[in-house]
């Protein structure tokens, strides 16, 4: 049972105006990621055939998107702090519709690459980090619980987007599917962003325009960025290679697919566990626990070569991934002043998106040249490094709290 204070807060969240914003953001994030980053996973082969492009170049599109998102995040950080998320996310929806329209009408590689550059700019304005900033603006002191709701809903993106995209492509082809997503972005996501989000950041006051921005502790920022980027590197790298790793460990293809599918369920379970905890434990406690599960999961996979071992790995790894996804959004609330949350979150997106973008090609190259186990050992080393950086952040935060 949740403590009475937490139950009251949950009831207040359900009946507060923030619910409309969180519900709207859950919808727009699912559409935003499903229609962009996850699109080529289903439509890629058909795109390659019709555009006369090799499939690896088609699959390079989401990587271009992540790199552009990283490059655009830092300049946008002060804009989020100054103007709030609402106008920027609404503009991002329009840019996303434009990028998807270019893909739907593309005639070759030049227009295809241009489309992903536009989508990267759009993503920096409306995907994940901007949504988390918007939740912080509309939820105030209840932001951690509200972020948990948003991230919990986001865990269903691929589960919903991939079958839907496959159905639409089977009915009307990839071009019409992409253009339908463009129309959805413009006619649904943009109005939701404009009408459901806070018109001004909650913390702003008329006389704050002349006050210097709230400072961000640089060592804390660096430790957090290093820890989450290191974890993100192997989680996004394994997104494309985990089935091969299972098969290398001795599983047949059917069992490898089953174990890989179990990871997604465990990730969602990890997010749900964090949400149901009701904020009773410190964000550091859950983040450190999750970070410690990563190396343990790799040890299991290195030491076993059977289906039960793969399932145990999938459970530990998936729960750790799910909780870490929540920690990436909520831990900045605990580390940085409320007035700096938007700026810190947007700047954290730079190393995170660069790490996410580099991971798939790097892991693929390592597996091709040195074998799957080399990629597994790299992930194990990265997980130890990430845990150490997070522990250092915790110790620094505790020392700063004790200072008068």
What's this model, at a glance?
It is built from 15 helices and no strands. It is an all-alpha fold. It starts with a helix and ends with a helix.
Describe the fold and architecture.
It is globular, with a radius of gyration of 21 Å. It has helices at 4-15, 18-35, 40-51, 55-83, 85-104, 109-126, 129-139, 143-154, 157-196, 218-248, 253-276, 283-303, 307-335, 341-370, 372-402. The protein has 2 domains: 16-210, MFS general substrate transporter like domains (Growth Hormone, Chain: A); 218-402, MFS general substrate transporter like domains (Growth Hormone, Chain: A, Up-down Bundle). The protein contains 15 helices and no strands. With 404 residues, the chain is mainly alpha-helical.
Secondary-structure arrangement, i.e. CATH architecture of the largest domain = Up-down Bundle
- Radius of gyration in whole Å, from Cα? 21 Å
The fraction of residues in strands falls at under 5%
Order of helices and strands: HHHHHHHHHHHHHHH
Structural classification: mainly alpha
Number of domains: 2
Largest sheet: none
Give the N-terminus to C-terminus distance in angstroms.
36 Å
Low-confidence runs: 201-211
In terms of topology, how is this protein built?
Blueprint lengths: L3 H12 L2 H18 L4 H12 L3 H29 L1 H20 L4 H18 L2 H11 L3 H12 L2 H40 L21 H31 L4 H24 L6 H21 L3 H29 L5 H30 L1 H31 L2
């Amino acid at each position: 049972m949740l403590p009475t204070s937490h139950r009251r807060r949950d009831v207040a969240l359900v009946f507060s105006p923030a619910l409309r914003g969180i519900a709207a953001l859950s919808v727009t994030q699912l559409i935003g990621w499903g229609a962009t980053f996850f699109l080529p996973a289903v439509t890629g082969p058909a795109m390659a055939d019709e555009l006369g492009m090799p499939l690896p170049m088609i699959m390079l599109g989401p990587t271009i998107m992540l790199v552009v998102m990283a490059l655009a995040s830092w300049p946008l950080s002060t804009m989020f702090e100054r103007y709030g998320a609402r106008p920027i996310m609404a503009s991002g929806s329009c840019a996303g519709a434009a990028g998807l329209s270019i893909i739907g009408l593309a005639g070759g590689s030049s227009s295809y690459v241009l489309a992903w550059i536009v989508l990267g700019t759009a993503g920096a304005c409306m995907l994940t980090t901007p949504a988390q900033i918007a939740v912080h603006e509309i939820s105030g002191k209840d932001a951690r619980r509200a972020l948990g709701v948003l991230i919990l809903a986001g865990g269903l993106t691929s589960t919903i987007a991939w079958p839907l995209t496959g159905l639409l492509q089977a009915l009307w082809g990839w071009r019409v599917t992409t253009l339908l997503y463009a129309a959805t972005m413009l006619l649904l996501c943009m109005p939701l962003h404009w009408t459901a989000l806070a018109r001004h950041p909650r913390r702003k006051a008329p006389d704050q325009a002349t006050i210097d921005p709230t400072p961000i502790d640089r060592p804390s920022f660096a430790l957090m960025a290093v820890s989450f980027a290191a974890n993100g590197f192997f989680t996004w790298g394994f997104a494309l290679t985990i089935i091969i790793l299972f098969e290398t460990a001795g599983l047949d293809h059917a069992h490898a697919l089953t174990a890989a599918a179990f990871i997604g369920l465990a990730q969602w379970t990890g997010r749900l566990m964090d949400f149901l905890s009701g904020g009773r434990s410190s964000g550091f406690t859950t983040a450190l626990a999750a970070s410690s599960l990563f190396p343990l999961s790799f040890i299991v996979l290195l030491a076993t070569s059977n289906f039960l071992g793969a399932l145990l790995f999938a459970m530990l790894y998936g729960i750790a991934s799910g909780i870490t996804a929540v920690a990436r959004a909520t831990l900045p609330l605990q580390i940085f002043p409320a007035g700096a949350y938007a700026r810190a979150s947007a700047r954290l997106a730079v190393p995170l998106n660069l790490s996410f973008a580099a991971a798939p090609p790097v892991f693929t190259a390592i597996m091709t040249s040195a074998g799957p186990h080399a990629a597994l050992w790299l992930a194990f080393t990265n997980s130890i490094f990430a845990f150490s950086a997070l522990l250092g952040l915790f110790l620094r935060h505790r020392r700063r709290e004790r200072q008068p």
